Amino acid sequence: MAPGQQKIQSQQKNAKKQAGQKKKQGHDQKAAAKAALIYTCTVCRTQMPDPKTFKQHFESKHPKTPLPPELADVQA
C-alpha cells in the first residue's frame, strides 16, 4: 500500500472515531440546567426551578416587597 493511501485511510478512521465519541457525550448539561430554571424573580431577576424555592427566595430576600400573585397559593 502506498504511503498516501495509508494516510487517507488513517484520516477516515480518525474522523469516524471522533464522530462516535461526539455521539457518546450526550446532551449539554448546562443547557438542560438552564432550561429547568423557569421561574424568575421580578425584583432581582434570579431564576429558580420551582415555585416553592421561588417563594422561599422572595420571602427571605425581599421581605418588604409584596408577594407576587402567582406565589399567593404556593405552600412553602
From TrEMBL:
MF GO annotations: zinc ion binding
Alphabetical UniProt keywords: Cytoplasm, Metal-binding, Nucleus, Repressor, Translation regulation, Zinc, Zinc-finger
Compositional bias (Basic and acidic residues): 53-62
Sequence ranges of Basic residues compositional bias: 14-25
Domain C2H2-type, residue spans: 39-61
Biased composition (Low complexity): 1-13
Major subcellular site: cytoplasm
Protein name, per record: Zinc finger protein 706
Source organism (scientific name): Pan troglodytes (Chimpanzee)
Name of the encoding gene: ZNF706
